[in-house]
Amino acid sequence: MGGVIQQKAASRRVLIVAVVLAGIVITVGFGLARRVDLVSTDQGEQWLEDEHRYLIAQIDLLEIQWEQALEEAADFELEASKRERGEAAREVLGLRQVSYFGKRGEAHELVEFPLQGPAPLEPSLLSGELVLTNEEVFSSHNPIWIDDAGRPLMYRKADAHGSAVVFILNKKIARGVVLGELKSLMRTVPRVVPAGGLLEFSGDSGKVWLSRGDADCKSRPADETLRHYSRFGEWPIRYWRPRKEVVSYEASVLGGMSLVALLILVGGYWADREQARALKLAAQRVSFVNSVSHEFRTPLTNILLTTELAQEDSREPKAERRLALILDEGRRLSRMVDNVLSYARAERGKLQLGQVREVKLAEFLESCLQQFEILFARKGITCELDVSGDERVEIEVDFLSQIVLNLLSNIEKYAGDGAVAKVEAVAGKTLRITVSDNGVGIPAELKFRIFDAFERGGDSVTSTSSGTGLGLAISRELARSMGGDLQLKNSTNGAVFLLEIPLF
Ligand code: ADP
């Protein structure tokens, strides 16, 4: 039922809500404080340096081999007869043009012919726009590379007689040759890359020619890039270290959130304790009122009985009126005592159905109304009774009368002077009793709360009407214990209560 029992549930709810909230705060805290870092698991550089050194060694080797081939070709070309010219040069891959500088008098004779690639270079050597100077061609007998920006890559060798041969290299072809050689050389040795890492060899165009390891690494930039520049271009090695996820939590965020969660828990615990204390106090009060009510009951019943007898004996109208007044007030007190006792019983879970009796419905309701005859008359309240359906009903009469008397008592207290009330009863499979009035009614927002124990309408608390706020709570509890219900119906004019009880 309402009141204390509901408060008990509410009390536990505060603690549960606090615990759930604290849990949410902690969970969110963990989420906010969580940091996932990718930490490299391979710190060793040595093997990578070894790889680089190996690559450099291979490129250097190729370069030396190339140079040797060029020098041999140059020696041959310097010695060669006109007919044999170009024969040795043609054997060396990547050569684009051979230029011969023979000595004839003061001027040098220049013979050029292409080997691979496009037509002879324009402007040609020693022509109007000089590509090579005399100095460069004849300065020394040692073979030299001529490799500067803006000019093609050249290899020159001069002899003791003042002749020289210049090889113009096609860098692209040369690089292609080097690349082919490198690929086959490097592929023969298995590259041992740490698991989860990636090693990549590429040319200066960025095109990868050898790749070993986990290709997924390429979603991030390389951790290491080692470069080697040779005559044939740039040869970078890129390395992605293997990474693993390391989860850490930011202490400040976690600490802050834990503090909030702790505060919520402490607050919840405090509220729970306070409510438990209030509940205990309320229970003590109820127990006290219950004991007092018990003590009231017997003398009150005796007073009411004696007054009724005295009223019957009385021949004096004035005394009769006074006795009627005592009877009304005594009954009011009796209803209050009944409600308190029922409430205390319900709280202890001891609200049990009494004896089911058969009553004539119309007679029963008339006798209820009779108890209010004088009270209603005093306030000018009229009440109509309309009974239909089965004449007799079998019901727990004490419970039913307590409910009906409570509803009628409320009309007397709250409907106001001159109110018009109505009690309509229909008995069939279910007993339906509608108790309505055209008074101030009950605001919609109180529709459900009004049935809570100790709940009194806002105005009625300040008004002079007496009450404990137990009448409706007890009435609904009694109706439910009979398998039925008591509800406040929506109404634009006054209060309308519907009591429904299934009949057997
Ligand atoms: P009490 O009468 O002791 O206050 P009840 O539980 O019987 O307790 O009623 C609760 C509240 O419902 C009352 O305080 C009153 O504000 C309101 N109420 C009950 N019946 C009526 C009615 N017929 N008209 C207007 N208000 C009512």
TrEMBL record:
<feature type="transmembrane region" description="Helical">
    <location>
        <begin position="251"/>
        <end position="271"/>
    </location>
</feature>
<feature type="transmembrane region" description="Helical">
    <location>
        <begin position="14"/>
        <end position="33"/>
    </location>
</feature>
<keyword id="KW-0597">Phosphoprotein</keyword>
<dbReference type="Pfam" id="PF02518">
    <property type="entry name" value="HATPase_c"/>
</dbReference>
<keyword id="KW-0472">Membrane</keyword>
<keyword id="KW-0812">Transmembrane</keyword>
<keyword id="KW-0808">Transferase</keyword>
<dbReference type="Pfam" id="PF00512">
    <property type="entry name" value="HisKA"/>
</dbReference>
<feature type="domain" description="Histidine kinase">
    <location>
        <begin position="291"/>
        <end position="504"/>
    </location>
</feature>
<dbReference type="InterPro" id="IPR036890">
    <property type="entry name" value="HATPase_C_sf"/>
</dbReference>
<dbReference type="InterPro" id="IPR005467">
    <property type="entry name" value="His_kinase_dom"/>
</dbReference>
<keyword id="KW-1133">Transmembrane helix</keyword>
<dbReference type="InterPro" id="IPR036097">
    <property type="entry name" value="HisK_dim/P_sf"/>
</dbReference>
<protein>
    <recommendedName>
        <fullName>histidine kinase</fullName>
        <ecNumber>2.7.13.3</ecNumber>
    </recommendedName>
</protein>
<dbReference type="InterPro" id="IPR004358">
    <property type="entry name" value="Sig_transdc_His_kin-like_C"/>
</dbReference>
<dbReference type="InterPro" id="IPR003661">
    <property type="entry name" value="HisK_dim/P_dom"/>
</dbReference>
<dbReference type="InterPro" id="IPR003594">
    <property type="entry name" value="HATPase_dom"/>
</dbReference>
<keyword id="KW-0418">Kinase</keyword>
<dbReference type="GO" id="GO:0000155">
    <property type="term" value="F:phosphorelay sensor kinase activity"/>
</dbReference>
